[in-house]
Amino acid sequence: MRGIFLVARRDFAAYVNTYWGWGILALALVIDGILFNVQGLGRSPKFSAEVLQQFFYLTGGLTLIVSVPVTMRLFAEERQTGTMVLLETSPLSDRQLVLGKYLSGMAFVTAFAVFTSYLPAFIFVNGKVGTAEIAVGYLGILLMGSAGVAIGTWASAVSRNQIFAAVLGAVGITFFVVCWMLAGKVDAPFKAVISYLSFFEQQFQPFQQGRLNTEGVVFFLSVTFGFLLMATQSLCARRWR
Questions:
Q1: What's the rounded Cα separation, in Å, for the pair 187 and 184?
Q2: Mean pLDDT, to the nearest integer, of 92-100?
Q3: Which residues contact 217 (CB under 8 A, 6 or more apart)?
Q4: Please, what's the b/e burial string for 30-64 (b: 16 or more CB within 10 A of its CB; e: otherwise)?
Q5: 152, 127, 146: which is closest to 54 by C-alpha?
Q6: What value does the mean pLDDT take over residues 71-98?
Q7: Which residue, 26, 190, 19, is CA-closest to 115?
Q8: pTM for the complete prediction?
Q9: Fewer CB within 10 Å: N-end or C-end of the chain?
Q10: Neighbours of 110 (CB within 10 A)
Q11: Rounded-to-5 percentages of helix, strand, coil across the chain
Q12: Which helix (H) or strand (E) holds 42?
């Protein structure tokens, strides 16, 4: 466990000690604030629950977007700078490396989510929502963000440069986002399977509405585990080449 946290701390420090990490965080927060003001609050009167749902929808989408530039550096940058050999010859296992890199990405995504917490507070000015609804919504954001970070970690593990890692990670995340559209183009039984894979329309929506969805929890954790496992296997395969 100590090795995992050493890797996580090293990579997270690389985010917060450079303009890259703070630039991503600042840009995402500005965009989130603007979208919330335009789409969430708007000019027409809305119920507090509707405003909160819109906030989680927008912030959830931005969380997935943020996970792409954050994770593209995890392994791809190590290969570009030639420091990957130091990791491969370290006493850490592939599993520890992947988990450490993943935790650093999750720490950044969690920081983004925490910094957005002032936005739901505006709802209390003219409305009222339950703190449990807010907590459940943020749980959904972190779970979906976890899946996004895991996909990005895998993309970076199989890529030789950061650009390709970003493209591959974005494609992987986009697939899960647009599955509800793909489900409308196919027939049963594939329609139900593809629809089940949809991040927003199927799995995140209950969290967005303030309902704890155990099926969604299992789904996002399964996606996270699956992509981290593939990232570990990719590193293991590279060691034997």
A1: 8
A2: 84
A3: 143
A4: eebbebbeeebbeeeebebbebbbbbbbbbbbbbb
A5: 127
A6: 77
A7: 26
A8: 0.89
A9: C
A10: 18
A11: 80, 0, 20
A12: none
109 contacts 63 by C-beta, under 8 angstroms: yes
Q: Is the preceding omega at residue 189 within 30 degrees of 0, hence cis?
A: yes
Tell me, what's the pLDDT at 185?
Answer: 66
**Could you give the CA distance from residue 59 to residue 200 in angstroms, rounded to a whole number?**
12
190, pLDDT greater than 90: no
Helix (H, G, I), strand (E, B) or coil at 32: helix
Sort 233 into a burial class: Cβ within 10 Å, 0-12 / 13-18 / 19+: middle
- Helix 48-71 × helix 131-157 angle, to 10°: 20
Question: Which residues make Cβ contacts (< 8 Å) with residue 81, sequence separation at least 6?
Answer: none
- Predicted confidence (pLDDT) at residue 204 exceeds the cutoff of 60: yes
Residue found under tokens 């890797």:
7
Confidence label for 42 from pLDDT (cuts 50, 70 and 90): low
Structure-token pair, residue 141: 């954001």
Collapsed DSSP state (helix, strand, coil) of residue 110: helix
Identify the burial level of 14 via C-beta atoms within 10 angstroms of its C-beta, where 0-12 means exposed, 13-18 middle and 19 or more buried.
Answer: middle
pLDDT in tens, 155-185: 988 888 888 889 999 999 998 888 877 766 6
Domain ranges in the chain are 2-239
The predicted structure's pLDDT at residue 139: 93
Q: How far apart are CA 219 and CA 204, in angstroms?
A: 10
Dump pLDDT digits (tens) for 10-36. Answer: 888 888 888 888 888 999 999 988 888
